[in-house]
Each structure stands twice: as structure tokens, then as C-alpha cells.
Amino acid sequence: MRRVATNNAFGVLLVLFLALFPMFSSDFRLELMGKFIVFIIFAIAMDLVWGYAGLLSLGHAVFFGLGGYMLAISYSLQNGVPSFMTRFDITEIPTLMKPLQSIPAALLIGLILPSILAGIIGFFIFKSKVSGVYFSLITLALAKLFEMLVVNLQMYTGGFNGLMGLPRFPIFGEPMSLTAYYYMVLIITVLVYLFARWLTNSHFGKILKSIRENESRISFFSYNASNYKIFIFIISGFLSGLAGMLYVPINGFFSPLDVGLNMSTMVILWLAIGGRGTLMGAAVGTLIINWMSNLLSEQYPELWQLFIGVIIVMVVLFFPDGIYGTLKNRFGTYFDSLLNRKIDENMEMEMEKRDYANNLS
Amino acid sequence: MNIAQQIADGISVSGILLLIALGLGITFGVMKVINMAHGELIMIGAYTSYVISTLADLPFIVAMAAAFVVTAIVGALMEVLIIRRLYGRPLETLLATFGISIILQQLVRIIFGPAGKSVSNPFNGALNIGSVYIPYLRLFIVGFAIMLVLITAYVLFRTKFGMLVRTVSQNRSMSDCLGINTPRIDMLTFAFGAGLTGIAGAVLAPLKNVAPTMGMDYLIDSFMTVVLGGVGSLLGTSLGSIVMGEANQLLTVFGGETGAKIIVFLLVIIVIRYKPEGLFKIERR
């Protein structure tokens, strides 16, 4: 209970800041902030898998990119056969892509397809003795594989250049203003955050965390760990697909960089630095790293990358909980203890009693 | 398409894979360290070769020796400063070495600039057997890879250092009890693996564009090769690279080079899924 107060206070402040942001920022800044808020969804999706279940996926952008490409292709199909297809003498829209002609259908497919893919990959990997590092290696290969696939299927995906000149901000075919789109993204992100918080605080979330801590022990308690892992992987795939789709209208183009290693490593960076295993850490890390990289990478592009590398090593060695986790552990408990010292004392006594009872039984 | 030519090309690709995977076979196979900066070690080797053989105009063999020394030092530093603190936590190691890979990439970019460099080919010309055409450089790479594997096998199985490496990897605490300086062995093993990787980079430098970002593709290829062949076995790594290399060339019928690579990756993923110990792992006891 004691952590909840700081978490809530901080979360409310953050949302308030983001909600007021359009009033004092230029359109350019607003667009950037919108992008970063979309990234928060992606970071939360990754956090569910890595921070909570302990599965370091090195190819999570596969789901992000799959969702994004569905919507991006759908946009490109709106005015008949797009130019990247006609270049390869395709005069008719391929049968498999017919459903993508309708944008609402594409929105649906962009959510379902990544979930299905996550389910297949999850079933394939977690129903075996493959674990830990090998999972990371498989997902690394998958990310590279998808990147190559997208580049190779040039006639359907636009190849290495990606899909350019996509219309900005139409969701159901109707254009939206930047501010309206920004608020839509913000609301969706808050909903995703609340959903993820509910999920991780539920019984299901507790089992996930115990899988991360000690998988064989939770298996002894007759929980089927692989099913839990598959399920969280599907949810994560779904949310990543959602993030990918929200990213397309605000970015205006979509390229193989968004589907492969580049994006996959970016999200790991945000999470590691922000603090994995806490949802707020995902949000904080994403916003801080992206803003700093945006501000600093123009002036000192080289030093900035170097700095990022050093930060990662430092975080791994000295602050494994990331920025938010470390601050929360250092100061959060202090503030909370001021607020509800009474409750804490009662709780601790409760806990001690319970521990004692457990030891007896 | 000429099948003999395909097989010959496959052999030369196998040689390249064997070279880049050999060092990883030591660091990942023997020490169980997931080194995401492996590709960057190759890159450093390649840049050393560029400095020595192109800028300083010294013979290629000097470049190879220098690459070994430089990357071995980089590897030793990595081990002592960072990896040593993270033993037993593979995912943390992965993350830290990922950070190192960014640092190394960026340092090289700051020193040499982002543009690619080229290293002149020390072996011009090609061998023609019937209709089969093999450039001398590729022939040299295959021969050199085999030689390097034999040297590594000799070091691991016939020298005192190799015996210590195997002892520590099999039972660390027992080695400690017997008075073996395990941290020193760890450092030397990692430096040795890194050095081998550096030589690979130096030898491959004339073949490809030397650029700060060249490491990533090598990284994935080498991990796939080591895992396919069987982690912790030199023979497995060698056989794994032959299978990967030949498959990469022979499957080009399906959708060209990228198509072949996609299929190979899929196959490797399936192999990891069903045989995580690798195709050629020989069970001892």
C-alpha cells in the first residue's frame, strides 16, 4: 500500500502536465510530445513482458511494426494502387490486401494480427525448455528476420524507403486536428496505463512477478507458468500493435527501421533507464530519454550517443531499478512514511503476524 | 545456376561465419557471457586493420597481429570493468554489453568519422577450377579460419592455460579451492575470445565496407552460428558455420540472398526451439 500514494501523486501530476502541454507549446513540440506519448504505450507493453515477467524480448518492435504497417498500407491503398506497387507492374490490389482498403478494418487487423503473432511465437517458445537467454536470442533473430522480410517484399511494403506521404491524422478516414489527435492519444495512453496497473496488481500480475523471481517454485504450486507467459506476451503484442498504429498518423511515414532492431533496442533503452518493473518508470524513461535525445542530439549528436551508452552501463551496474525506481525507493518511501506512518506500523505488525503464522504451518 | 559454384561460395561464406563465430564460441560458449558488443569487437579489428594496412601501409600480417592485441586489450578492459561484476546474471550482462556496444560504436565514429572506409585487398586475383571461380581472398579466409580453429583447439586442449580455462568453466568454486586465480583466468579467457574476434574483423576488412555500424549483422550471424552448432563446443561451432554458410548459398534459389537468409533464420529459430543444446553437441556422460 505504501508505494501507491507516491505513484498516484506522480501519475496525476504527469497526466496534468501532459494535458496542459498543448496550451503552451508550438505545433512542432506538440507533435513530438504526441509521438513520445505513443512510445509510452509501447514501453508499457514491453514492461509487462520484461519488467514483470522477466522475459527480455530483443525483437518487440516486430509487433509495433506489424500494427503500424497494417495502418500505413491501408492509408497508401486509399487512392487506388500506390506508386510503389505500380513500379512492379501490379495493377490491382492483391487479394490479401483487399481488407486493408477499409481503414476501420485495418485498425482491427492491426490489433488482431500482432496479438495472433505474439500468441504463435509465445506458444512456440514458452511451451519448450527454451528459457532466458535463448528467448532473447530467438527474438533478436525474429527482429532481424522481420526487418529483412519488410525490405525484401518491396512491392507490397515500399521496401527500404518505407511508406511515405501518408495522410496526417485521419483515423476513420476523417482528418483530425493535431490537438484533437494529441488528446486522443493521451486518453488512450492513460487507459492503457490504468489497464496495465490493474493487470499487474491483480492475482495474475502477482503470479507473473513470481514467475520472474522463481519459475520452478511457482510451477510447484501447480501454476502453469508457460500459459501465463503466453498470455502476457499476447497482451503485450496487442498493446505494441496499438502503439504502432497510433504512431503512423502522427509520424506521417513508416519504414523498416520501425519494425526491426532499431526500434526494439530503443524501447529497451527507455525501460532500462526509466526503471523496469514499474509502469511509471516506463513512462518517465520514455519521456526523459526522448526529450533529451531530441534536445541534445541536434547540438551534440555524437556525444549524446556516447552518453546514452555510458548511462546504460551505469544503470545496469549501480541503479538496476532505473531512474524512477531508484528515486522511488530512496524518497518515495520517505514521503509515504510521513503520510501514513500509522497505517504502516499496523500493516507491518499484521505482516509479521502473518509471517509467523506461515512459518508455523 | 552452377551448383558447384554455389557450393564453393557456400564454403567461403562458411569460412567467414567460422571466423566471426570463433571468438563468440569462447566468450559465449565457454564463459556463458552474452556479449552484445561482439560485433563491435569485429568492427574494432577491422578499423585496426584499416589503420595499419591502409594508413600506415604495413603488411597485412602486421594488421592481423595488431588487431588481436588491440581487441584483446579492449576485451580485457570490458571484462575487468563491467562483465566481472555481473556474472550469474545473463540478462544484466546482455544489457551492459549492449551499452558497451553503443559506446564503442560512438567512439569509433568520433575518431574516424561516420563514413565507411575501405581496406585494400592483399590477395588479388582468383582461382579458376573449371567453371568454378573463387577469389584468392576468400580462399585465404577459409584456410585462415581453419588454421585459427586448430590454434584455438591447441590452446584449449594442449596448453596449461587451456586446461585452466576448461577447469574454471566446469567448476568455478572447486577451481577457487585449488588455488586457481579464477578472476585472472576469466579476464584472460575473455581477452583471448575478444582477440580472436578482432583478427576476424581484420581479415574480413578488405571484403566489406569498414563502418562504425558494421557490427550488428555480424553479431546476429555469429550468435546464430554458435547456437546452431552447439554452445561450448569448437567442433559444433565449425559444423554450425558450414551448415549456415552452405544453406545461405544453396537457398538463394528462393528469393535471392535475403530470401535465403530469412529461411536460414527461421530454421535456426526452429532448431533453438527443439534443440537448444545445438545440432552437434556431443553429450559427455
TrEMBL record, chain A:
The UniProt record lists the keyword Transmembrane: yes
CDD domains (alphabetical): TM_PBP1_LivM_like (cd06581)
Transmembrane region(s): 36-55, 62-85, 105-126, 133-156, 180-199, 230-248, 268-291, 303-320
Membrane topology: Multi-pass membrane protein
GO MF annotations, alphabetized: branched-chain amino acid transmembrane transporter activity
Keywords assigned by UniProt, alphabetized: Cell membrane, Membrane, Transmembrane, Transmembrane helix
Localization terms from the record: Cell membrane
Top-level taxon of origin: Bacteria
GO CC field: plasma membrane
Listed name of the protein: ABC transporter permease
Organism whose genome encodes this protein: Paenibacillus abyssi
TrEMBL record, chain B:
Primary location group: membrane
Family note: Belongs to the binding-protein-dependent transport system permease family. LivHM subfamily.
Domain of life: Bacteria
Source organism of this protein record: Paenibacillus abyssi
Compartment annotation: Cell membrane
Spans through the membrane: 6-26, 58-82, 94-112, 132-157, 188-207, 219-243, 250-272
Pfam families assigned to the protein according to its UniProt record, in alphabetical order: BPD_transp_2
Cellular component aspect of the GO annotation: plasma membrane
Topology within the bilayer: Multi-pass membrane protein
Example GO molecular function: transmembrane transporter activity
Record keywords, A-Z: Amino-acid transport, Cell membrane, Membrane, Transmembrane, Transmembrane helix, Transport
Name of this protein: Urea ABC transporter permease subunit UrtB
GO biological process: one example: amino acid transport
